[in-house]
Design brief:
Elements: H1 8-22, E1 24-25, H2 27-38, H3 54-70, E2 77-78, H4 80-107, E3 114-115, H5 134-139, E4 143-150, E5 161-165, H6 168-172, E6 183-187, E7 200-213, E8 217-228
């Protein structure tokens, strides 16, 4: 039986459809889109942890790689649209998250307080006989702003006094913090906190004095807190 004669444009269309089926979906394009989608929640938490911007930054790198790979190889791979979408989404999220984080950093310190960090509280290795930071002496009686984590000492609700530490390693995994990595916070009424894994923003009057705290022993840094977030 003779095969029917098909119009030339129909034959070309059939050949194009068969060709499309043989192209490979780019793995990097799919990954770029998936990372972009995963990065969406991070923009809402960059105020708490700016390190979350690594997710959309990774999406930008993968998306750019996929786009540059595919734009001149559409005869071999599909997925250019996914690469573009992932790249655009990650770029928007990174820029938005960075702007939000920068704005939060610039406005988070209450009026009348000085921002300090735990690095400011570390002793000077040139003076090993002094167990605390020389800067800490200058901060006595000053109103300061500091961020950290509530050390787990068994309290969970309506916490008025606690030790604050700089990182999750000592906060949540049971390590013993260094002496100069601990600040004992005493909150004014009616302020209180609930225990969580989130980093806290505290402000109050800074002072130095040796005392004992549950679970950690001696502490020398103290903060009489009148602001908590």
């Amino acid at each position: 039986m003779e095969s029917p004669n098909l119009p030339t444009n129909t034959v070309s269309s059939l050949e194009a459809d068969q060709y499309q089926q043989y192209r490979t979906l780019s793995f990097s394009a799919v990954v770029a889109l998936v990372v972009g989608l995963i990065s969406i929640p991070t923009v809402f938490f960059t105020r708490v942890n700016v390190g979350l911007l690594l997710f959309p930054l990774l999406g930008i790198m993968i998306g750019l790689f996929a786009y540059l790979k595919l734009r001149n190889r559409t005869d071999e791979f599909t997925g250019l649209g996914a690469a573009k979408a992932g790249l655009l989404l990650s770029t928007i999220l990174f820029c938005g998250g960075f702007a939000f984080s920068a704005y939060s950093y610039a406005t988070e310190v209450p009026d009348g307080y000085q921002r300090i960090s735990y690095s400011d509280l570390q002793p000077d290795p040139r003076y090993p006989e002094i167990p605390y930071s020389p800067m800490a002496e200058e901060l006595i009686g000053q109103r300061v702003f500091l961020k950290g984590y509530v050390y787990p000492d068994g309290q969970t609700h309506d916490i008025k006094q606690f030790v604050m530490v700089p990182d999750m390693g000592t906060c949540c995994f049971g390590g013993q913090p260094k002496l100069t990595d601990m600040v004992q916070v005493t909150l004014e009424n009616p302020l209180h906190v609930e225990y969580s894994y989130y980093r806290r923003s505290l402000a109050g009057t800074f002072r130095i004095g040796s005392s004992s705290a549950d679970k950690v022993g001696q502490v020398i840094y103290h903060l009489d807190g009148d602001y908590v977030k």
